[in-house]
Amino acid sequence: MSESILATHNLMKKFGAVTATDDVSIDVRSGEIHAVIGPNGAGKSTLIKQICGALRPDAGHVELMGRNLSDHSTAARAQAGLGRTFQISELAMEDSVLENAVLGAIGAVSGPWKFWKSALKTKELTDRADQALARVGLLQERDSRVANLSHGQRRQLEVAVSLTLSPKVFLMDEPMAGLGVEGSKIMTGFLDGLRDEAPILLVEHDMDAVFALADRISVLVYGKIIASGNADDIRSSKAVREAYLGDAK
Amino acid sequence: MRVQEKTINALVVVGLMALPLIAFVNDEPFTITLATRAVILAIAAVGLNVILGIGGLVSFGHALFFGIGGYSMGILAHHAQTYTALDLGFLTTDGTKLMPVIWLVAMAVSAIVAYVIGLLILRTSGVYFIMITLAFAQMFYYFSISWAKYGGEDGLSIYVRNDFPGLNTLIPIQFYAICFIILCIVLFLYARLQASPYGLALNANRQTETRVETVGLNSMKLKLVAFVISGAITGLAGALFADLNRFVSPTMFSWQLSGELIVLIIIGGVGRLMGPVIGACVFITLEHFLGGLTDFWHIFLGLILLCIVLFARGGVVGVLTGKEGAHV
After folding, report:
1. Which CATH superfamily includes the segment(s) A1-81+167-184+191-249?
2. Which residues, 6+ apart, have CB-to-CB distance to A164 below 8 Å?
3. Contacts of residue B207 in chain A, CB cutoff 8 Å?
4. Do residues A26 and A34 lie in contact, with contact meaning Cβ atoms separated by under 8 Å?
5. pLDDT tens for residues A102-145?
6. Residue-wise burial string across B96-111, b where 16 or more C-beta atoms lie within 10 A, e elsewhere
């Protein structure tokens, strides 16, 4: 199949006696959405943190387009092409929607070492920000303060900021979290189209969304990948039913 | 009544131009000296406002840079005044009485010290950052007390104010003009910095470092540069302050002064362009009038501070513009 953009190789992470990530090797290939699902406490967030550099694995490494990221800080990984969104919105709450998006554009285009020209009057930055806001449908809120946005709009802004980065791969930590039925549907539609731009590693609780979107699904239980395959494989896997879906149905 | 922030800013600048002129016409040099003090403290607090207001890091040791600026002036002028050589190891000079040179030295030394200290202390945050900045300032304070070569505890007197080409700096209104123009330049640069991509990133970094890192920016470097800029501006103010008093002493390094600079910003409005300036004017006014009534005027200052923190987080600027929260 197509080339692997992001890959983890034998990642291990222990917190005391608890193995949060147990020999996890997964990859994300161009053009696909690879979903990681698993019950609460399965180690999904820990996995994401190790990929984006917030946590250092005890063993194993992460590769982006064949490049080992072990020595890269979080910022360097973002520069290299990891576009992360957060389960709980990490936004500058006092700033406007536009300023948050421009922050992404600064990271992607100009860098922060510009002290003279106003950021919001730099067309290169605002154009990039506006484009991203338009794509998630937030352009009419561009001058609103993030603190005044609804929860759903903050989720959209999270995605918009990652769009300004034009990443090589998206790392999305529960983008549907807290969205209503309607909001989930819109977000699902949006992510569906996004995979052609850059593949997505999607950690998500919303099973409808996962089964509708994912080209491949990996199931994480107690830090271990117990099954991996397309939606049908996962639905019919006995191990997965026992560990996870069984109590959901 | 709500006033536009721009209107307030313009009024403050006009007021700072008019008041000393009126005092000059009425021949009240003491009022001009008071205004000069306010302007210099304002410059120092604008410096602090970069790291505290935009960067969100409460430096409780900014007297460190104020003192470095003061001693830069004191040492250079002392050698020039006594015709003794200043041996720096790599360079021997006669010192100087020229203000622009003194300012550059004060800013450069402050910036270098801020850079070195910043590498260490910016790894901490919150209350640890407050304590470690205080600790560094106290180190310099006690060092200056024991530095017998430059007056130790008694400080250094500089008998004649330093020179600025074309002006007689001993005339209060002329020295005031120098300080006022420097304040205007510093405020202009602050405004540019705040609106620039760097300022936007630093402001976001105050709110969420995680977000800033996630868009590929190095949070530590952002803070370090802010600390260096902040230290350099406060150092410049220190050099001016020493020239105003024609005297440098360890009190310029004191923690009370660090605290006062924070108080100025809180009174005026955290992160606001004119916050430190308004804070300095209010502070000097209170010190003069209440201080004339009672030695315990700090009690009233405390009460005012309490009211601002409890009821008007945006300080004076916040109250006037009707935007109550800090920053917002």
Report:
1. P-loop containing nucleotide triphosphate hydrolases (3.40.50.300)
2. A101, A102, A104, A105, A107, A108, A128, A129, A132, B215
3. 92-95
4. yes
5. 999 999 998 999 999 999 999 999 999 999 999 999 999 999 99
6. bbbbeebbebbbebbb
Residue of A78, A86, A102 with shortest CB distance to B216: A78
Query: Distance from CA of residue B11 to its chain's centroid?
Result: 21
Of all residues in chain B, the one with the smallest CA distance to A99 is: B200
| Letter string b/e over residues B131-163, b meaning 16 or more CB atoms within 10 A of that residue's CB | ebbbebbbebbeebbebeeebeeebbebeebbb
Alpha helices in chain B (DSSP H): 5-25, 29-49, 63-82, 99-121, 126-145, 172-195, 197-207, 209-214, 219-245, 255-268, 275-293, 298-311, 315-321
3-class state of residue A111 by DSSP: coil
Handedness of CA A95, A117, B275, B208 (dihedral sign): positive
Residues B78-130 pLDDT 10s: 999 999 988 888 888 889 999 999 999 999 999 999 999 999 999 998 899 99
- At CB < 8 Å, which residues of chain B contact A? 192-193, 195-204, 207-208, 210-219, 222, 325, 327-328
pLDDT tens digits, residue range B16-64? 999 999 999 999 999 999 999 999 999 999 999 999 999 999 999 999 9
pTM over 0.90: yes
Chain B neighbors of A100, CB-CB under 8 A: 204, 211
Q: How far is A203 from chain B (nearest CA, A)?
A: 17
Nearest to A107 among B198, B208, B217 (CB): B217
Q: Look up residue A46 and give its two tokens.
A: 């820990």
Residues forming beta bridges with residue A221, ordered by sequence position: A224
Euclidean distance between the first and final Cα of chain A, in Å? 33
State both tokens at A228. 């991996």
What pLDDT was estimated at residue A249? 43
Torsion sign across C-alpha atoms B102, B105, B108, B110: negative
Residues of A with CB below 8 A from B199's CB?
Answer: 115, 119
Contact A73 B218 (CB under 8 A): yes
Kindly tell me if the per-residue pLDDT of A81 is higher than 70. yes
Our CA-based measurement puts residue A102 at a distance from the nearest CA of chain B, in whole angstroms, of 9
Tokens of A99: 């300023």
Alpha-carbon Rg of chain B, whole angstroms?
19
Domain ranges of chain A: 1-81+167-184+191-249, 92-166
**How many Cα atoms within 13 Å fall on the side-chain side of residue B175?**
26
B193/A115 Cβ within 8 A: yes
Judge whether A113 is closer than 8 Å to chain B, CB to CB: yes
